[in-house]
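Dear colleagues,

For the upcoming journal club I promised to circulate an example of a predicted protein-ligand complex. I picked one with hexanoyl-coenzyme A because it came up in last month's discussion. The inputs are reproduced below in full, followed by the predicted structure.
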Amino acid sequence: MALFCRAAYLLLKPSRPVAACISAAARQYSSGGQYDYIIVEKRGEKQNVGFIQLNRPKALNALCDGLMSEVGQALDDFEADGGVGAIVITGSDRAFAAGADIKEMQNRTFQECYGGNFLSHWNRVSTVKKPVIAAVNGFALGGGCELAMMCDIIYAGEKAQFGQPEILLGTIPGAGGTQRLTRAVGKSLAMEMVLTGDKINAQEAKQSGLVSKICPVDQLVLEAIKCGEKIASNSKLVSAMAKEAVNAAYELTLAEGNRLEKRLFHSTFATEDRKEGMSAFVEKRQASFKDK
Ligand code: HXC
């Protein structure tokens, strides 16, 4: 990429400087030195799992605007990277994220929030087509819990704590907490958490369906990457269809959802990967998907 940029610059003298090309490539493929608040890498044996670590330890990964913009940028890069088949978002052992940045929000006015469509850019996490796994150790509170719930799968470390404590600050969840938590754990527990600000632990989160797996703290990220590798070994095209179909269950009636599922199922028959998957089964060999 860098060589290509250099050659193109020398031959065509483009307006975009070489440094910009190199830095875009570096941001995509290196260890995330371009970011202030997150660490971005590719993980897994085949380097096919995008890895985003929230890295604002002194503020327990409070989700300031800059951090969430960087998460959006990293997701854009992974979405465009044909080698990446799944994405893991994690924090530190102490905190996945302790919420939106209260110090940044403290003096905001209604006019600024409403006029500036405050927090609208957070939605990027829920619009990514590739499967996203949240690996939650420690606190996932307020916006931190909401960020985890925007992901497709949540794995929790044994000491994880989930909560929507906004009520204690005189506000309410604003990034999907009241909606996604209710769908995940049911009305009574969601109401209790949102109205009291009480947290639930990893075991309660598993029992209520908020998370799908509990892991020892030091194994959590490895397990999430393993899950990402499993997902990435399948067809990316068909994984996106599967994700779209499951997500539709939250939006549509049963009849509409079943119709969408059937159409997507039919669509897989237009892909080479569906042919390859079934041929591989019949020929008793491992499928080799080309994402076509
Ligand atoms: C900004 C935060 C923060 C936050 C923690 N910190 N949470 N800064 N925004 N959400 C900072 C503290 O100010 C402190 O920095 C440092 O992180 C360590 O925090 P402590 O409180 O000293 O740690 P501890 O005693 O261990 O308590 C941990 C905690 C507590 C229980 C997680 O920090 C806490 O209650 N945080 C707020 C949780 C919360 O209410 N989240 C919801 C936010 S509102 P300094 O420099 O001061 O020592 C929200 C709205 C979402 O998320 C709406 C849509 C996105």
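Two points we might discuss: Residues 65-80 form the longest helix (16 residues). Residues 28 and 83 are 11 Å apart (CA to CA).

See you all on Thursday,
B. R.
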